[in-house]
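Regression test case RT-17, inverse folding.

Input:
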């Protein structure tokens, strides 16, 4: 929603198109009637605020997100949340979907989602380096860019400018920044970019 509000501030005359785009996102999230297959399950990076918003959208009576959504804590309030992506629509995965897809437990779910992400990555990942720094942006498809933090060792295995354990920031769903932990200028630049993104979305 904050991205749409930022778009409105930049171009108020486009309000109708912005509202339509926002409604399209909501309809995609709410489209949970179609059958679910294991090949449609992908990992996304979200925070606890997103979980609460998902609960409100689905109008569930469950008290805790863990009772109806399937997610995996990563660090702090950041977590891996599983989504069902049919290309035409996208919605959160719940435990009934797991059964429908024939997935028995969360370990198998994690492996399935990672394999699907690898398939999506195949030949599509781009790494854009800032000249003179180790700072880089890793781009996939604007939907699962942030999810690449789960596979950074694979994404960066052939990159000579970045270490296997870079510092990373995810200022937006479609923005994954990485740099060397020993590059102080890059670290400062990354912090500034993340702060600016936060202020723009406030």
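Golden output:
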């Amino acid at each position: 929603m904050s991205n749409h509000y930022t778009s409105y501030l930049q171009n108020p005359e486009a309000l109708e198109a912005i509202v339509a785009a926002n409604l399209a996102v909501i309809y995609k999230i709410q489209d949970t009637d179609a059958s679910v297959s294991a090949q449609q399950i992908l990992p996304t990076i979200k925070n606890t605020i997103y979980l609460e918003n998902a609960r409100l959208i689905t109008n569930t009576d469950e008290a805790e997100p863990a009772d109806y959504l399937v997610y995996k804590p990563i660090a702090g309030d950041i977590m891996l949340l599983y989504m069902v992506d049919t290309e035409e629509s996208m919605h959160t995965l719940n435990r009934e979907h797991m059964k429908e897809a024939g997935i028995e437990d969360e370990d198998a779910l994690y492996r399935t989602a990672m394999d699907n992400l690898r398939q999506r990555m195949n030949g599509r990942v781009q790494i854009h380096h800032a000249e003179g720094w180790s700072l880089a942006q890793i781009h996939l498809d604007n939907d699962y860019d942030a999810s690449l933090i789960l596979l950074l060792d694979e994404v960066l295995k052939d990159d000579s400018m970045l270490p296997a354990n870079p510092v990373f920031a995810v200022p937006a769903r479609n923005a994954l920044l990485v740099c060397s932990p020993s590059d102080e200028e890059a670290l400062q630049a990354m912090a500034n970019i993340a702060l600016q993104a936060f202020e723009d979305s406030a």
